[in-house]
Amino acid sequence: MTPHTKEEEIRYRKLDAIDAKCAPLLAVTSILLVFIGLPPIFETIRPAHHIIFKILVLSLLASCLVALIALFFKDHTSDGFVTVRKYALNTAVAITAFCCLVVTMIVAETL
């Protein structure tokens, strides 16, 4: 096995940081999906906010997909690849944060 250059080591550390952030993000996204799928929440929110609910579910699933894409192909260490993974993680975080805000507003309205 050949030793990594200093630049490769830096890129691997960046990739490891992205990986470490993706796991909790996937957990939060999954928890939101489970929460809005609970019968009391689902039965209250879905009839009153059908379109918003559908967009919310699709957005959360898209966030999961983007986060999983950010975890894919870990061994490629070019600067461009690290940048793409960073943008994928940031996109997934933004989508999940927006969905969390929407869920909070809907739940607050229905309480």
Note down, in words, how this protein is organized:
This protein has 111 residues and is an all-alpha fold. The protein has 4 helices and no strands. It has helices at residues 6-37, 39-48, 50-70, 79-110. Helix 1 runs parallel beside helix 4, helix 2 crosses helix 3 (50-70) and helix 3 (50-70) packs antiparallel against helix 4. The chain starts with 5 loop residues before the first helix and ends with a helix.
Number of strands: 0
Shape: elongated
Give the H and E element order.
HHHH
Largest β sheet strand count, sense and barrel closure:
none
Strand fraction: under 5%
**Helical element count?**
4
What number is the mean pLDDT?
A: 86
The SS-based structural class is mainly alpha
Helix fraction bin: over 70%
| Termini separation | 59 Å
Low-confidence stretches: none
Q: Which radius of gyration do the C-alpha atoms yield? A: 18 Å
Characteristic terms for this protein:
about 110 residues; single chain; mainly alpha
Task: Put the structure in a nutshell.
This protein has about 110 residues and is mainly alpha-helical.
